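pasting for ref
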Amino acid sequence: MPPHAQLATPAGEARAAVVPPPRPAGIEPLVLDFLAYLELERGLSRNTLSAYRSDLLQLGEFLARRGSAAERAGHEDLAAFLDDLAEGGEGRAPVAATTLSRKVACVRSFYRHLRREGIIAHDPTADLRGPRRPQRLPRVLSRDEVNRLLAQPSGGEPLALRDRALLEVMYACGLRASEAVGLELGDVDLEEGLLRARGKGSKERLVPVGRSALAALRVYCVAGRPQLLGARSSTRLFVSRRGEGLTRQGLYKIVQGHARRAGLEDRMSPHTLRHTFATHLLAGGCDLRSLQEMLGHADLSTTQVYTHLSADRLKDAYFSAHPRATR
């Protein structure tokens, strides 16, 4: 029907019908297409995809309040969005710098995708600047502290054998907590001394396993794991006392319990062993590229934080040992 067609009313009178213009679809279809690309092409995790979806819908709401849309947004719109987040607009608390950095990365990736797809002609994020993130050096353990921690699970009980193998493997391979609990029995080659870890975005990598960790794994697989499983069956390498796959919460309790007994409770978390692994390898002469591959870092800049940490440790050792050194 034409926009101004005549409609008959019950009284027989004619009136003009105005058809409203189609409403814009909003940002949702663009976001769904972008998330599908991230999942299929880049293999990002569900948690990351969920965070990106939330960030972009928040952007869509902000642009709508400004009378704009994702396809028409310019640099000024996006800069205003970031300023609004940083300053805590409309009574909201200001967004933390780390969260804001993630949102900036999300928006940039989103608009690069729109540019590749030909939806926009120019990328408005080309000159977009996020906040500078303060570089915090991670806490690490000394060699003596690592030895104290690894000595805590003592005895031949199944749980002690499991905990010793778990701590040894996390330190020997620099595993994230999620990678450690996700290990399958077939992911470890005890003969070749290799372990397959599944990192962020389900990306797999091979990591060498040291002699001490291999020895602890062999004892656990023979004398500990079968007793924990009982009549159950599981493909998981590390299992709970009920024979089920170990959870991240369970792993955290195990690490914290042994750290407390070693007098290290206030110094570490499960991720501390990963930081310690990286720092000790660099201090021992490992090159940065090899360390990047073993840690599963997509970007070398993420690995480079450990070079600063190793330099600090070297300076500490120098100033405490050299007879003519002063700070």
